[in-house]
Structures are given as structure tokens and as C-alpha cells.
User: Which sequence fits this backbone?
């Protein structure tokens, strides 16, 4: 199938890049792709109830609204009773929007990582997940990557080299060489990775068939695991999927006849309660300030019904092989965005000519030069895009 882009080698310093093979108009979709691996951020799981495979929001708008009402009241929404929702057959609590999604997740990785089939809370796989939640959720994505490698091994004629190669064409270093944090010295990271690996190794070897253990062993040494974490740290892409309830709320705000809509009174009431909670939480201020700034021209008088991010989006991270081939620029010509599920769309931000390199921003490209350069230290390069060269 012919595509409108290709990966080309640039030079030793910049490596490979993604280039347009035809002209694109502003707003045109350049490519679509699903993630090689992906996960929902742990702290986001309560606020955004989504499918464990495709990340579509679960339930109808009415059921989602009831879920938010339950959370406000301090309860736990009964997501399993939502329409078109199916749960993991082993009772681990993972939910899916369809039987097809449940089967896809099970075949790719959940068969190795499901803790519903484990009776003991002291089981190493349970402790591995607890350790990841307490220390760094990237360990959960690394475990999924190893499970996906085993999936490829099972389905490609038992070629473990080819299964691993799915990941190794990305740039990588040991995790402790990629993470730039004074709060986490190298020795702390090494110990954290070592503890995680011991638990994961013990846990997986207990749940896998005995004949597969020799295949798994090379994937569970410190060198491989640390490089895998470094690969994920450097190449993962943030995923944000807007809540359908947020879109519906904003559409009603735009409707001058919203008071006549049957659902508006209760939707407005729930939204106002959430806004009160947000205003009382200092951690919500930064993200809301940005949205308020974006809408400032339209809401100079601080309309009580101004658009706010009330119903949280899905937030996660994943590896998107083709998008990851796109190099960084603080003045990018593309943007990677998401619609209603985990399908990434790379969209042209301006007209792009055939042969032009496709860039997207790895960081907040609206930050000042010094802050942008500091954020890019993680990627081991100094940006020389036109914006940086101009000192902007």
C-alpha cells in the first residue's frame, strides 16, 4: 500500500527522519497508526473509565454522568454494569468495550500479566505491579512490551530475534542514562530497576508454560530490561483522548436553548460540583489556567458557563513506531492527536511540500528557549530548529 511518507537516513548525528513523499495541505491527515504497546496512566484510571484495549470511553453518556456523580459522592462507580462493557474472564477488574477488544488484549499481553488468575496477594506478579505503582508506572509498560515480544514469538514461527527486533529499531540507552533527575541518582534508579526485574521475572516464570521459560530468560536480564526502559522513556508518546461527556457538555454550552434540554439541569449540576472540587485543588490550577488563557478572548467577563475542562480525558502513553520516526522541532509542521480511541493521527499544521521533513514537538514548544533546551536534555541533543536559532 502506497503511503505519503517515508523514513530516510539523514546523517550520523540526526539518524533517521520521516519525510513527505507528496504535498499536504494544512489540516490534512498524513498518517494513522495504532500503538505497538500502550497503557493508561495509573492516576487517570478512576477519573476516565475506558476500554483496556482501545481506550474508548465505556458506557453511554448517561452512564458516564452517573459515574461522575458517584465519584463526587465518594462512591465507586459500577462500571461493569454499563452497556456494551465486558470484563476480564478471570476477574482482575480490567474492562473492555467489546468482546473483540477483550480477545485482542488477552492474545497480545493480558494472558501473561493478568493477576485475576492468581490467588495469593504475595505472588510476585502482584508485588511487581504494586512496586510499579509505588515507584514508576513505566515498569508496567515494559512488562507489556515483554509480553508482546512473547506474542510475536508465538505467532512468527518461534523466532525470538524477529520478535525483539520489533522494538530494537528505536534508539535506546539504559534507563538511568536517559532519566535526568537530581531527585533520582543513578544508584537509586539501578536499585529500582533491579527490584522491579526480580519481581517480574519471578512472576512471569510462574505463570508461563514451562517450555517457554528458556525463551523468556534472555528478556529478563538487567541489561535488556534497563535498555528497554530507556527505549520507552525516550520514545513513548503521550496519549490524550477527550471524554465524550466533555464534548457533549461543550456542545450544550454553545446551544442557546440548552435550558430546554432534558439532560442539562443534572449535567450542569454535576459540572458545577466538579468545578468546585477543581478550584479547591491547587494541582488543577496549572492545567485550567492554560485553558482559561486559550479562551480568554471569548470570555473576558468570566462567564460562569465558560468552557472548562470538567470531565477528565483519558491520559496514557504508548509506542507508535512510525510517529516515533519523526524528529523534533520547536516549530513543528505536524501534530499527533487522538480522536475517540488509541488511533494516532499525524496532522499537517501548515502546508507541507513533497520532500520536506516531518517534525513534531517532543516538549511544550510554547516554553521559552532556556526551558525548552533543558527539557530536551533527556533526548541528548540541542535543538537547532529555526525558532531556536532565532533565540525565540
Assistant:
Amino acid at each position: 500500500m502506497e503511503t505519503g511518507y517515508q523514513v530516510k537516513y539523514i546523517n550520523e548525528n540526526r539518524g533517521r527522519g520521516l519525510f513527505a513523499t507528496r504535498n499536504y495541505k494544512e489540516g490534512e491527515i498524513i498518517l494513522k497508526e495504532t500503538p505497538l504497546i500502550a497503557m493508561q496512566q495509573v492516576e487517570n484510571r478512576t477519573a476516565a473509565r475506558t476500554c483496556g484495549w482501545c481506550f474508548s470511553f465505556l458506557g453511554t453518556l448517561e452512564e458516564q454522568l452517573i459515574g461522575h456523580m458517584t465519584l463526587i459522592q465518594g462512591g465507586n462507580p459500577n462500571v461493569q454494569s454499563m452497556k456494551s462493557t465486558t470484563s476480564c474472564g478471570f476477574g482482575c477488574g480490567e474492562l473492555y468495550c467489546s468482546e473483540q477488544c477483550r480477545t485482542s488484549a488477552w492474545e497480545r499481553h493480558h494472558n501473561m500479566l493478568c493477576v485475576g488468575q492468581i490467588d495469593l496477594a504475595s505472588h510476585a506478579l502482584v508485588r511487581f505491579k504494586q512496586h510499579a505503582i509505588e515507584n514508576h508506572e513505566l515498569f508496567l509498560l515494559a512488562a507489556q512490551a515483554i509480553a508482546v515480544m512473547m506474542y510475536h514469538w508465538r505467532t512468527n514461527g518461534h523466532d525470538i530475534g524477529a520478535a525483539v527486533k520489533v522494538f530494537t529499531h528505536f534508539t535506546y540507552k539504559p534507563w538511568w542514562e536517559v532519566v535526568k533527575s537530581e531527585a533520582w541518582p543513578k544508584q537509586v534508579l539501578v536499585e529500582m530497576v533491579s527490584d522491579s526485574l526480580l519481581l517480574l521475572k519471578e512472576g512471569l516464570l510462574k505463570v508461563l508454560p514451562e517450555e517457554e521459560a528458556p525463551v523468556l530468560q534472555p528478556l529478563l536480564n538487567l541489561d535488556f530490561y534497563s535498555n528497554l526502559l530507556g527505549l520507552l522513556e525516550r520514545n513513548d508518546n503521550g496519549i490524550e483522548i477527550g471524554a465524550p461527556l466533555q464534548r457533549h457538555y461543550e456542545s450544550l454550552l454553545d446551544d442557546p436553548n440548552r435550558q430546554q434540554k432534558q439532560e442539562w439541569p443534572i449535567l450542569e449540576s454535576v459540572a458545577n460540583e466538579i468545578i468546585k472540587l477543581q478550584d479547591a485543588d491547587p494541582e488543577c490550577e496549572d492545567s485550567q489556567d492554560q485553558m482559561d488563557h486559550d479562551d480568554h478572548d471569548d470570555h473576558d467577563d468570566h462567564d460562569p458557563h465558560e468552557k472548562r475542562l470538567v470531565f477528565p480525558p483519558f491520559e496514557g502513553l504508548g509506542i507508535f513506531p512510525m510517529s516515533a520516526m519523526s524528529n523534533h522541532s520547536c516549530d513543528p509542521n505536524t501534530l499527533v492527536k487522538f480522536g475517540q480511541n488509541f488511533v494516532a493521527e499525524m496532522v499537517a499544521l501548515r502546508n507541507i511540500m513533497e520532500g520536506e521533513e516531518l517534525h513534531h514537538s517532543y516538549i511544550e514548544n510554547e516554553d521559552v528557549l532556556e526551558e525548552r533546551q533543558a527539557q530536551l536534555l533527556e533526548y541528548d541533543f540541542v535543538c537547532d530548529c529555526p525558532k531556536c536559532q532565532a533565540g525565540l
